[in-house]
Amino acid sequence: MKYIFLTVSLIIFSVSSAVAQTITITPDPEHTNLAPNSFPVNGETLIISGDQVQIGSSVFINPASWAYSNGKEKFAFLERRENIYLISVDNQGNTLVEEALEFFDISDETLNVYSFDDGRVILRDNVANFSFLNSKGEQVFSVSNSSQSADGERESQLAADKRGRTVVLYNPVILYGEQTGSQARIVFGDQDHEIFFDDREREIKSLQVSDDGAYIIMIISDGTSDRVLIFDRFGNEIYRQDAGDPLAGAVLSKNAEYLTLFTSGRVQVFELLSGEVLGSASSRASLIYAAYQPQDETVLALGGSVSNGTIVNPTLTAVHLSRREIAREEINQTVSFINLQDIEIERPAANQYKIIGLNRHLMISLQF
């Protein structure tokens, strides 16, 4: 396997504060009337009210765990009855699978479920054990992701691409005496998995897999400084970047040519092949998500304060890197989310964007 290692120096190239002509933000017309606890799912509505989750005709009260697939086509729930039950439904609430998980401990507080568009489900129990189920709810194989540290570890987490082809299990925090570290492994199949990352001094702050499953993007921290690592789908490290301030996120462009890093108040864009810093900008609002749009040479950054699943005083900042122009606009809509990692920015046309992953899609139009 070819190993490529790039280290990029942090060179700040700031854009000026010139103001663009216009930035227009409107909600998707189909989502205008959605309440903060209602979320669009392929023509249907997901409603979350306290401990109650409703999708189509199905209502689940206080599930032990629940999840939706990346395309929001399938939903999986774990219910505590006399046993733990797995219930999988489609986006209209029609039941696809209902199975008792007889060997799961009903008192286990680490239960978690992960769902995929093709109906597959992955279950976590006992901190670090993962069971892989097919679309019929039948167990295909299981993987223990335990680090075996005598000092303990936090619950293992799972990250995967939208189709569930590249699956990564990781221990975000492992105790080694007075030190904390982390570990990650790729699961290729039954009895076929490999640890590709093992660090006894840095914790994993975040880990995500690119939409196409080709890359793994990881932020690790030693408590004082953060580092971004990018691996290919086989676990080979191909890029690393040290950051001064604590990072809030890292977004890799679809063609894997550009990396956007953002802290709470600054965003930077890197070209991976050359190591060049294309530009950086500060934000008045705390940043929640930021991504570079290379076709338009523009960075879009969503800011605001997060409170109980709602983004308070949301704002959008657009930075044109080559023209060194900045546009800022308040979002006069109530926007909420289920998971911040769901937030993405799509580009349907030049200088036209859509922010998804919120209770209403936001349509963005720029004119520099």
In short:
This protein has strands spanning 18-19, 22-27, 38-41, 44-49, 52-55, 58-61, 65-68, 74-80, 84-90, 95-101, 112-115, 121-125, 129-133, 139-144, 157-160, 167-176, 179-189, 192-199, 203-209, 215-221, 226-232, 237-243, 249-252, 258-262, 266-271, 277-282, 287-293, 298-307, 310-320, 325-330, 335-336, 344-349, 352-356, 362-367.
Question: Would you give an account of this structure?
Answer:
- This protein has 368 residues and is an all-beta fold.
- The protein has a domain at 9-33 and 248-368: Lipocalin.
- 0% of the residues lie in helices and 56% in strands.
- It has no helices and 34 strands.
- The chain has strands spanning 18-19, 22-27, 38-41, 44-49, 52-55, 58-61, 65-68, 74-80, 84-90, 95-101, 112-115, 121-125, 129-133, 139-144, 157-160, 167-176, 179-189, 192-199, 203-209, 215-221, 226-232, 237-243, 249-252, 258-262, 266-271, 277-282, 287-293, 298-307, 310-320, 325-330, 335-336, 344-349, 352-356, 362-367.
- Strands 1, 27, 28, 29, 30 and 31 form a 6-stranded mixed β-sheet that branches.
- A hairpin with a 5-residue loop joins strand 23 (249-252) and strand 24.
- The radius of gyration is 21 Å and the shape is globular.
- The termini are far apart.
**Overall geometric form:** globular
Q: State the CATH architecture of the domain at 9-33 and 248-368.
A: Beta Barrel
Q: What class do helices, strands and sheet pairing give?
A: mainly beta
Distance between the termini: 44 Å
* Quaternary class: single chain
Proportion in helices:
under 10%
> Could you say what the CATH topology of the domain at 9-33 and 248-368 is called?
Lipocalin
Mean pLDDT: 91
Tally of DSSP β-strands: 34
Number of helices: 0
Unreliable parts: 1-18
Please give the radius of gyration in angstroms.
21 Å
Percent of residues in β-strands: over 45%
CATH class of the domain at 9-33 and 248-368 equals Mainly Beta
Give the biggest beta sheet.
Answer: 6 strands, mixed
